[in-house]
Write a structure and sequence with these properties.
Layout: E1 3-8, H1 12-23, E2 28-34, H2 37-47, E3 51-55, H3 63-70, E4 78-83, H4 88-96, E5 101-104, H5 108-120, H6 128-149, H7 157-167, H8 172-179, H9 183-197, H10 202-211, H11 214-218
Parallel strand pairs: 1-2, 1-3, 3-4, 4-5
Helix pairs in contact: 2-3, 7-8, 7-9, 7-10, 8-9
Amino acid sequence: MSVSVLIAEDDPLLQSFLKELLSLEKDLEVLATVTNGHDCLESLERLKPKVLLLDVHLPGLSGLKVLQALQEKPGSPYALVLSGVEDEETQLEAARLGARGFLPKSQSRAILGQAIRAVSEGATWYSRRVSDLLIREHQVLVRKVRETERPVNVLSDREREVLVCVARGMTNSQIAGELFMSIHTVKLHIQNILRKLDLPNRTEAAVFAVREGLMDEQGAGGARR
């Protein structure tokens, strides 16, 4: 089956060239060409192509704005961004907005068909450098999400301090002296810690603190003040 393509390019000469170039590929079908972002969105809704060949600098509504609008639409096409500017930030921004690939206009003639086929199958088409940057961004995001989801984050800073003291084997009286609070307050904190973490006793709380690395976070010398 052929891969349907919509070309969004405001330069009439380049638009004509791209259409002619793709017409030579038996498995690629150009459904239509548009010259601005608003017509692009309308044509996408009406024609539902598999791949959108998108100029990043469209008039009226830029290519990046088009990508942003497509994020809110289910069943959007795979977008392959074309640009005469090859800066990394533009490529990264396009990727963040859901583009499957980026193709400099200077390289489009030799590998255009190959790039369209790749993104039509769900693959990405970015330089090695940009791909590496995107992977690093994803890794940072995953770490942040995991940090946010850590069970220990349900505890207040004061409860963390008490939990570290518990893990150090300190009695309620010792914790009270260490953190300058009453024994009654220490007991309340421990009750809250066990309730929030759904733990049965302070021994399990101590094991939890060690497993979560709280001892390392707050220093081997004791709890933070």
